[in-house]
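[Automated response] Your request has been received and processed.

Submitted sequence:
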Amino acid sequence: MNSTVIARFSAILGVTTSRTTCARLTLARFYAAKKGRKSKSSSSSVSIDHDLAEGLVDLEKLQSAMESAVGKLQLDFRDKISTKILPNALDKIKVESQNGKDKFILSQVAQIKLNNGMFVVDMNGSPELVSQAAKAIKSWSLNFEPTMDGHVISVPIPRVTQEYRENLTKIAKAACEQSKQSIRKVRQKGMSDVRKNKKGRSDDDVKTVEKMIQQLTDQFCEDTEVLLEEKTKELLRK
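Generated structure:
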């Protein structure tokens, strides 16, 4: 995709990570439409009218929540579900204390090194968090199998085989579905707000706002499918 076009859209939308993501996906929808793939929301679309929705539902908040779900999926695809493991991949993993009251960033409580295809996580500075850190690493990526030896955690990087790639595509598909579920929960909350606040509003207004919510839901769910399609091609080298 032309980087100049993406940069132009990003400038228009405000140059934040989430907005840039939204611009890229909007362009992807456009090119998909040119190839003949129909959008679920394109047949009888309505304009997103925040003024009309005011008093029925906070449409901006709803849209932002859906956008965040897509952004999280994109980050997961980049950082977690990939054949390319970066040296700082474990740095931002959150480690919960045993009593569950405190959370720590792994790089702040451990020394992390990547040597010969293995992460070595030295927890000598925070020995009480060793088991919790190992659990956090395992939860962060199902492909990692951390082992503990005293205050040191070893995390071998899996060898990239075709089977490994196919397994990653299954994990990517599950992550995509989870993202869609998050989007649908936002939709459900939005529809509930409309029903609670519809007193005094015309049926046409209510139906139009409900249609806006459904349209946003369809669009953002389609965005997750675009991301999944691109990620699958990357993982399987198609």
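Summary generated for your ticket: Residues 169 and 232 are 6 Å apart (CA to CA). The mean pLDDT is 84.
If you did not submit this request, please reply to this message.
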